[in-house]
Design goal:
- This protein is an alpha+beta fold and 128 residues long.
- The chain is built from four helices and six strands; from the N terminus they run ααββαββββα.
């Protein structure tokens, strides 16, 4: 599988809310660093994310792929996130992935975006 296909599969699984498919793209010990959820095992992160999500829609803007020289790829996309309570939040983000040695799974994901516009809605959702 190419790195680009791995990234396309990731966005597709995210859009579909398919927990099994998104987990299948990560190594067993993969970590996610998120500005809202903190540092979690990837399997736990996506379980929490999908629990907090009614709907996701991503629009890919850019792919920054240095995987031939290193093991990193970054996706820049717009995320239309409908929270479980129905509140829609929209933002641009960058997901920076570190690939495993075989370059067929993600080892680590660092998510980068400004949480200020959605922090209150997220905190309200987590309190309920």
């Amino acid at each position: 599988m190419t790195t680009r296909q791995l990234c396309i599969d990731y966005l597709k699984a995210l859009n579909e809310g398919n927990l099994a498919d998104v987990r299948g793209l990560f190594s067993d010990n993969a970590k996610v660093v998120s500005p809202l959820y903190g540092v979690l095992d990837a399997f736990d992160f996506y379980a929490d994310l999908f629990k907090d999500t009614n709907r996701s829609e991503t629009s890919l803007l850019n792919v920054f792929d240095s995987s031939e020289m290193s093991k990193s790829v970054a996706l820049h996309f717009r995320y239309e996130w409908t929270l479980a309570d129905g509140k829609l939040v929209s933002f641009e983000c960058v997901d920076v992935f570190e690939l495993n040695d075989a370059r067929d799974r993600f080892e680590k994901l660092t998510i980068i975006y400004d949480t200020a516009p959605l922090r209150q809605d997220f905190d309200n959702l987590r309190r309920t």
